[in-house]
Amino acid sequence: MKETVMKIYYLMPGRYSTQYCNNKKTYLSRFLSPGSEITVAVTGHTMAESLTSATDLALIAPETVKAVINAEQSGFDGVILGAT
């Protein structure tokens, strides 16, 4: 049985298709160390239409913090906040 060394949570704020998330996971997996795993997730919604200003980032902060806390409680070792 393969032992997982590190679990990484890649979080993208907003709405992205399952196909896009799968493609992102495939791309990111190329850079993982052996035994590491990555999960790609989205916040699912955002109050900001696009992330182009400090105000937009402030609007997504609460849901992002909740997702990061959830990832920690689920056993992830690290979180990467991705824009796309």
Characterization of the model:
The protein has a three-stranded parallel sheet with strand order 2-1-3. The chain starts with 5 loop residues before the first strand and ends with a strand. The chain contains two helices and three strands, in the order βαβαβ. The relative contact order is 0.29. β1 (6-12), α1 and β2 form a beta-alpha-beta unit. The protein has 84 residues and is of the alpha/beta class. It has helices at 18-29, 54-73; strands at residues 6-12, 36-42, 78-81. 38% of the residues lie in helices and 21% in strands. The longest helix is centred in the last third of the chain and has 20 residues, at 54-73. It has one domain (6-81).
Briefly summarize what is shown.
The chain has 84 residues and is of the alpha/beta class. The chain has helices at 18-29, 54-73; strands at 6-12, 36-42, 78-81.
> Total number of β-strand segments?
3
> Could you describe the largest sheet, including whether it forms a barrel?
3 strands, parallel
Mean pLDDT: 86
Uncertain parts: none
- The shape is globular
SSE string, helix = H, strand = E?
EHEHE
Q: Note the gap between the termini.
A: 33 Å
What's the gyration radius in Å?
14 Å
User: With helices defined by DSSP (H or I, 4 residues minimum), what is the helix count?
Assistant: 2
How are the strands of the largest sheet arranged? 2-1-3
Which structural category do the helix and sheet elements fall into? alpha/beta
What is the subunit arrangement here?
A: single chain
Percent strand equals 15-25%
| Helicity, as a percent range | 25-40%
